Amino acid sequence: MMTPFLTLPDALSAADCDRIIALVNSGPMKDAGLVRGQTAHQLRRAEIAWLDDLPEAAWVMDRMVGLVSRGNRDGFGFDLTDFGESAQVARYGAEREGHFGWHSDIGAGQWAAKRKLTVVVQLSDPADYEGGALELWPDSNIATAPRQRGLATVFPSFVLHRVTPVTAGTRWSLTLWAHGPAFR
Fold this sequence. Notes:
Layout: E1 6-8, H1 14-25, E2 30-31, E3 44-45, E4 47-50, H2 58-76, E5 88-93, E6 99-103, E7 115-122, E8 129-131, E9 134-137, E10 143-144, E11 152-156, E12 160-163, E13 166-179
Antiparallel strand pairs: 1-11, 2-4, 3-6, 4-5, 5-13, 6-12, 7-11, 7-13, 8-13, 9-10, 9-12
């Protein structure tokens, strides 16, 4: 039986989390876009950076590929073939009530249509913000992902999930999608 989601503690060290945030902070971030770059602030209010825009962040992808492999092996057994999209760092700040409403990660775009697994790594120290819970709705119950810094939450990309509004401080996360042929 497939598990609704997995958590992988210590996916990244605190130093790794600090390094990723510093890399992203060294350049401009973009307003979070949705499919095809269209923004809808009632659904998502955040800033993002794509790590393939930062050559000095190449090491992050190597780590993430290992996490996807481990998560898929331990919980899902999906047929995964590609990493067609860069890893994305998101900043949800209280000054904008950063949030992301209920959604799945499978969409109409070329790569979004092939997403099979989503990995979200908690980059922030949980003491640095309030609100900003990653909630998953894999079945008739809503579950809240642990907030441990460096922990990865791995789940099928079709699972509904959201980030509740950040009411104080800043929540940082790192997300990557693994792709493959259509579910059968």
